[in-house]
Description:
Elements: E1 3-9, E2 14-19, H1 23-26, E3 34-36, E4 43-54, H2 62-71, E5 76-81, E6 84-95, E7 101-102, E8 111-112, E9 116-125, E10 137-141, H3 148-154, E11 157-164, H4 183-192
Parallel strand pairs: 3-6
Antiparallel strand pairs: 1-2, 4-9, 4-11, 5-6, 5-10, 6-9, 7-8, 10-11
Amino acid sequence: MQYAKIICDEEKKAGALLDAAEIVMLKTSPSSIIEQHQDNTQCVSKLVYGRYMPQPDMDFPRSEVKRHIHNAIGQTLAHIRHDTAVYLEIEAIELIDVTLTINCGHCPAPHKTNDMPFAALIACPAQFELNKRGFAKTAFVRWHEMDIPTNILNRMGLFAFICEERRYHSHPTIDNWASRIDYRRATQRAQKLS
Length: 194
């Protein structure tokens, strides 16, 4: 399982949703974390599909979740790889307004979530490759007024980038990316992630 809630408050059983790859960051001194900034000349645009997962204990209404997602456009997002924060940006995003379910392990049957599938045009390093099968790559809005471990534990939610649309030979642009979205594939891939 890639995602799990880490309990931060035993009394309230409250916690934060984490990617397994981020746990090492909570044990790393903030001064040891490498922050990998890129300028626009070092980035490429990619059309990706994913699932936005709000923090489960915050009980945001769906309208608030949508606002968080749209507020992330143009913001710096961080992806954690070992002891490094790789930065990227959402240039545009299209939400797919369907209800996703999850098998949480505690419940006998899948249940509804506030998670939202999406298609996004991202600007990222060329080396930011998504697996064709397997784990997603997690990113979150980087709040620079706090260190990365604190940011991870206090973020509103996370973006799970699952796969890239590769059926086109040219790079997507702000003008053509929306016409290339495969909504069915985006929804199916988001539903499979849990």
